[in-house]
Design brief:
alpha/beta, 20 strands, about 30% helix
Length: about 400
Amino acid sequence: MPYKIYLKKNEEKRIAGGHSWVYANEVAKIEGKDKNGSLAEVYANDGRFIGKGYINHLSKILVRIFIRGDEVDDKAFYLKRLEEADRARKKLIFDDCYRMVFAEADDLPALIVDRYGDYLVMQCLSFGIDERKELIAECLKELFSPKGIYMRGDVQVRKKEGLPLESKVLFGEVPDEIVIRENGILLSVDVKNGQKTGYFLDQKENRFAARRYCAEGSVLDCFCNSGGFSLNAATCAKEVTAVDISEFALENVKKNAELNGFKNIHTLCGDAFELLRKFRAEKAEFDCVILDPPAFCKSAAEVKDAARGYRDINLTAMKLVKRGGFLITCSCSHYMTLPLFEKTLADAARASGRRVKCVEVRVQAPDHPALLTAEETNYLKAFFLQIF
């Protein structure tokens, strides 16, 4: 008998409003019996039907709702949802490299699908979705005829779902590196070992927007990873210094610079916090400083420490910018909300003794759409600041 989940009184409001997650502590009672990862029906306390989703007793998120009507999760269902998600990107004129499926935003919670040219890379971040990865891969193959489909399963959230950390080819052959074109730039993406699914596609349009702030100047790109911002800056900057703590990432920067014939990028390996302080001690200055660090907080409990970290690094960066130059600074943690990040930057500006203007605020690229009723999907903030 399928599971029937009854919520505590008033706990249905957030979920009925469009949020997908049902937390275990919001549940009043569970009826029925089925296996972990099966489709469970969710009801309000008064018996009103809310939706259906995969259940996982090992996770704090007991159910992730993705069906609000009488649909069933068969192959036809997945074909329809996947085709709809891709069609939405095609309307936005995404073609060579983009996020095809963005989990909750596409009514497919815990499923990520990225396109890199002729190849697709999946992440299955819940038990229920992982159980159906072969079916999903079959649907992707039928709809889009890729040369290969690769599953990246090396993210820690899988452990919370009771899943192993494993990555593997699900279909065809997938090379270690795939060359894509982003904003007219060639990029070699390592889908098997690179960050996330190989590359941070969510900053695509922000990287292009950065060009106007780097023109004819000296640029310092911290936490550069494989060089997305550095390469875009190199199209118009005089010189670019790409900083990362990973030699692996910097080798990728060099490779990508060579692919495009850029001679104005040089790399520097080290901790960005320490190197920024070193530059400050040396009284170095740059026309543009870019900060795109990994998330400083991955839970609400870490927000206070994260705010202090963001303040310190932005304070130092502001002091390195030439008068009239720019600081492009980002946060990719949804716990660091836009208002809180803005306040943190304002605190840094006051402490810096510099006059700071905000000239542009941007979010993640539109192939990573955010649900207004699920704040977790609106995670990326990028402030473009002019420093005087």
